[in-house]
Amino acid sequence: MRRVGSAITAAVLAALTGVLGFLLGEHMGALQAQRAQPLPAAVIAPVTGSGEAAEVEAVAVAPGLAPAGCAPALAQCREARISLRDSVAELTSEQAELRAELEFYRGLMRADGDSEGLRLHRVEWSALDSERVLLRAVLVRAGPQNRVVEGTLAMRLRGRRGDKVVETPISELLAGPPPAERFRLRHFQEWEAELRLPRGFTPERLIATIDPRGAAPIVKSMPWADLEAER
Q1: Rounded-to-integer distance, Cα 210 and Cα 115, Å
Q2: Maximum alpha-carbon separation in the chain
Q3: CA of 33: how far to CAs of 38, 70, 73, 189, in Å?
Q4: Beta bridge partners of 17
Q5: Which of 11, 42, 60, 167 makes a 20 to 30 Å CA pair with 119?
Q6: What pTM value is reported for the model?
Q7: What are the distances in angstroms from CA 175 to CA 3, 23, 171, 193, 196?
Q8: CA distance 73 to 80
Q9: With 60 as the cut, is the pLDDT of residue 167 above it?
Q10: SS3 category, 78
Q11: Are 73 and 24 spatial neighbours (Cβ–Cβ below 8 Å)?
């Protein structure tokens, strides 16, 4: 993982170096082209008089030259600065996405003490409207073994309706295609379900039961409020 992180950092630095080199080369080329152009006659005309009169005449000629000679270069510098800023922002966003993916895969490989190394990773829900939610999870098998593990995954939602505690299987709350109840994985498998919450029902806990074939079931209880996805 350290090698991957170093590679990402090196790629970002290389991209920034390339952008800077290109922009500086364009700017220097524009300046050299301007220097190669002949000076206007008004500039090379001799300054008559002496003393303060000569200084006033020279100052009168210089202001007319500066905007005409520097305006294109200043415009190019401004465009280069904007382009560089946009490139840095894009590279920063890409690096943040890569770091998030790395953290996700680090989490996949982290082992715990559950049977067969099975566990739920990144369980979260997001609201679709006032009654519907999208529930997602990733079932992970960590550890050195490389064989396929099979079994079933069942979830139920516990909450309150008025003064009563109600516990309902996810299968009875579905508002979309049913998720696969059985799993067969070597490393990880995604799980997703669209639910419609009954009116007046307040979810409190999500309870998941992982039942691998030939091993003891794993029961995981999670506070519903803690599983809301970040916006």
Answers
A1: 10
A2: 107
A3: 10, 12, 10, 61
A4: none
A5: 167
A6: 0.52
A7: 44, 54, 9, 8, 5
A8: 10
A9: yes
A10: helix
A11: no
